[in-house]
Amino acid sequence: MAANDTRNNRQQLNWTGRFTARVLRHLQQAIGSLGDLWRTPFTSVMTVLVLGISLTLPATLHLFVKNTQTVTEQWDSASEITLFLQLSTPDKAAQNLVQRIQLYPEVANVVYISAEQALTEFKVNSGFGQALEYLDENPLPATLLVTPTQRFSQAQAARELLLKLEQERGVDQGKLDLEWLTRLQAMAALIEDVVIGIAILLCLSVVLIIGNTIRLAILNQKDAIAVMKLVGATDSFIQRPFLYAGVWYGVLGGFVASICVAILASYLSGALRQLTDLYQSQFVLAGLSFNELLILQSTAVGLGLLGSFISVRQHIRAIEPTAD
Fold first, then answer.
1. Which of 22, 254, 280, 310 counts the most CB atoms within 10 A of its CB?
2. In whole angstroms, what is the distance from residue 210 CA to residue 311 CA?
3. What domains can be seen in the chain, in order of their start residue?
4. Up-side HSE of residue 61: CA atoms within 13 Å toward CB?
5. What DSSP letter does each residue of 279-292 carry, written as one string?
C-alpha cells in the first residue's frame, strides 16, 4: 500500500516537473524571440508600423460605421404623420376625426390645422401672399399632424399606423416621410459591406507581410536550423521561436493600431464638434470600447500567429541537414 502511494507521488511529481519544464521552455523561447526582434530594430519597427497602419484603416472604418449606426438609430423614428383631409370635409367633421384619432393607443398627440390656417401660413412662408388673394377658393385641405407614441414611432410600426389612419372617413391621403431614412440605411449597409471587404483584404495583407518576414528570418538562420536538426531537435522545437515572433509582431502591431485609431478619433472629434455646433447638435464621436480594443488586439495576434504558422510549416520542413 505504501509502495503504491510512493509510486503515485513520484508519477505526480514527474508530471508536475515535466509541465513546469515545458512552461519554462515556452517562456524562454518567447522571451528569446522578442530578443531576436530587438537585435534587428529597423526591420522589426518597419514591420510593426506596416501592420499597425494596415489594421488602423479597417478599425477606423468600423468606428465610422458604428457612429453612423448610432445616428441612424436616433433618427429611425417617425416624428409625425401628416394626414390631408378631403376638401369637402367640414370643420365639425374634422374635429370629430381628431377626437377619434386621439383615442388610438398608438397616438400620443394630434394637431388640427384648418384649411384657413394652412392658407395663411402658406401666404406668409411662400412670399406669394398678394397673388393668392386672387384665388376664388382655398385650394389647401385641412391637415392633421399625428404624433405616434414612442412604441409606435419605429419605421415599420409607423407605416402600419399610417395605413390604419388612411382608412378613416374624410382622410384623402397620408404622408410619412421615411424614404430619406431608407436611403440612409441602404447607404450605411453598403458602407458596412465595403468596410468588411477592405478589412478582409487588409487582414490577408497582414498575414502575407508577417509570413514573408518570418520566411526571411528562417532563411537567415538556415544553417543554424540544419545544425539543430542534425543534433536531434524536432520541427516543433525549431518552429516555436518563429511562432512567438509572429505573436509579438501581432501584439506590437495591434498596440500601434490602437494608438493610431485613438489619435484619428480625437482629431475627427474636434472637426466634428465644429460641424455639430453649427447645427446645435450634441452628437459626440464614440471611440473604440474596451471590448473592441481587445478584439482588435486579439485579431492582430491571431493574424500574426497565422502568418508565422504558414511560413514555418512550409520552410522549416524543407530545411534538411546535408552530409558534407
1. 254
2. 9
3. 26-74+182-315 (no CATH), 81-177 (3.30.70.3040)
4. 20
5. TT---------HHH
